[in-house]
Structures are given as C-alpha cells and as structure tokens.
Amino acid sequence: xxxxxxxxxxxxxxxxxxxxxxxxxxxxxxxxxxxxxxxxxxxxxxxxxxxxxxxxxxxxxxxxxxxxxxxxxxxxxxxxxxxxxxxxxxxxxxxxxxxxxxxxxxxxxxxxxxxxxxxxxxxxxxxxxxxxxxxxxxxxxxxxxxxxxxxxxxxxxxxxxxxxxxxxxxxxxxxxxxxxxxxxxxxxxxxxxxxxxxxxxxxxxxxxxxxxxxxxxxxxxxxxxxxxxxxxxxxxxxxxxxxxxxxxxxxxxxxxxxxxxxxxxxxxxxxxxxxxxxxxxxxxxxxxxxxxxxxxxxxxxxxxxxxxxxxxxxxxxxxxxxxxxxxxxxxxxxxxx
Length: 337
Ligand code: KG4
Ligand code: ZN
Known about the structure:
The protein is α/β, with parallel strands linked by helices.
C-alpha cells in the first residue's frame, strides 16, 4: 500500500509544504518571505506573522499540485527544531491540529537531519541515493558540520564550526558590502564574474575537523575599512573580485576539512547539504574533487538545498515506517542537539 506524507517546514523564513508518495516527490511548495530583505537578517516577529499568513495557502497548493485529498494522507511530518521559536510554533501547531482533525500520526523532524535525508527524495532530476556510510558536509545559515552517516538514523558529528556558520559568513560579508539579506546567493552570482585570487584572505588554523569563520569576517571588515579610507567607491568598483575572493576562501576552508575527513575515515562517498550547498562554487569544487580524488559525490537538487518541506516529508516518511510518532504535547526546540 502507498504511503502519503504531508511535510511542513517553518523553522526560519520559508513557509513550505510538500507531499510525498512513499519516497517520491508529488509537490514541494515554498513561500519565501521578502519582508526581511532590508533588515540585514530575519526579523523573528515578522517571520512568525508571515508563516501564519502563508501556511494554509501553501498546504492547499501542495495538496492541489499532488492531486490528492487530505483524507488520503497517512501522516503529518513537521519541523520541530532547530529554528526560531515563533516560526516553529506556527508549523507545529498547524501540524498538530491537522493530525488531530484527520486522526493520523504526527511525526516530528529535526531540520538538520532533514537537510541530509533530502538526498533520498526520489525525483527524476535528482541523482541516485547516497550509499551508506557516507560523509555529509552540512552547511546552512545556522550550522556547519561534517557528519558521518551510517544509516538513516545513525549519524555522528565529526567536525563543526566553533563560531560562525558558513551561511552566516556569506550573509555577514554581504551585509558589510551593503547587500540585502540573504547575501549568500548574491555573492554567489557576483563571484561568477570575479577573480577568486584577486584578494588573499587568511585561513584559520583550527585543530581536527572543526571550522572557524569569525576571523574571515573580521579580516574582510578591516580590509574594507582600510580600502574605503582611500576610495569611498572601493566596494562598488571591486564587488565582483571581492565576492569571488571571499567565496573562494569559504570554499577552501570547507573543502580542506572535508578532504581531511575523507582521508581519516577512508570514506569516499561524500555529500553536501543545506542552504550553502546551493552555492555554485562549492558544487564545482565537489565535482572537481570527484575527478581528482575519485570521490563519489552527492549534490542535492537546487530546490532541496535551501529550506523546503520535501526534506521534512522524506524524513517523516522513514520515521513513519519505524512507527516513530510524536505526542500532541511535543514542543519545538530552538538549538541543535
Ligand atoms: O538551509 P538554509 O536555507 O536555512 C537554514 O537552515 O539556515 O540556509 C540558508 C543559508 C543562508 O545563509 C544563505 O545565504 C545561504 O544558505 N545560501 C547560500 C546560497 N544560497 C543560500 N550561500 C551561498 N551561495 C548560495 N548560492
Ligand atoms: Zn535549513
């Protein structure tokens, strides 16, 4: 018998609903929130309000696109954290109410777990599923980790950032350059036309498989402060080379540790996941590594890189198959554990 799962994602500033038939995607609807653009980051109060406005239309649209009736659903999966509390509460409350009304199981999903399991969504435009065990570089606005994935539910953090996340670094550098939030995609776009070797930024020296990005942010800040004293138009004149050089440094920091992890574990199946995995430079670096080192690389379809409910639904699907349901009293959590 087929299993239909509705997934709900509302952890940050995207309201999303997706429908899966087993592991196959039927619909993945995402409503982005433009309201944060000029605040330099997500404004929690505005995000919760926008989720409240978006959630019902987004779920309706997902059911329409999937061409199923809500009574066909077998379970509702929702993001229970980490994320912004007010945002998570909108998705959690909606999922709880709908599961009660339809009398079907409720499944709670960890957002970062879901970024990784997004690789298992069956979609004609997404390449084959990763083979266990594999390494996953999980890079988003709030997280930067190297995970060792042994199974759908057996995973270990073997390296992580000791300060800023890589997505946060893209966004903070963009903010220094006067770009709107989120800056990551804008830097990516400009970097394509710039020289990645134009400006040399220092690389951190951190032990083991951990990362650090706060030094890079500070050196960009000081570098620009000095240049702007000489030429107030420095950023505008050099934005392409600046973007390319910063992006190149972030990717080199990430890839150096990922190579180290592959060497230490002997694992040659390597995936990337999370918002920053949408970055064209990081995708290219992975493809290059697959040629040079013979890695089998897994790069998620663009739509499954940044926040989406399809990844929540696929994680919910595997938890549903295990009978791992949530109680109505479950409460969202804000930080990763
Ligand atoms: O996974 P995600 O959508 O949300 C979180 O869970 O945080 O990741 C968002 C992050 C933001 O920092 C955004 O700037 C970054 O991913 N991002 C990118 C790109 N697309 C999104 N960073 C670099 N290049 C991109 N193309
Ligand atoms: Zn995310």
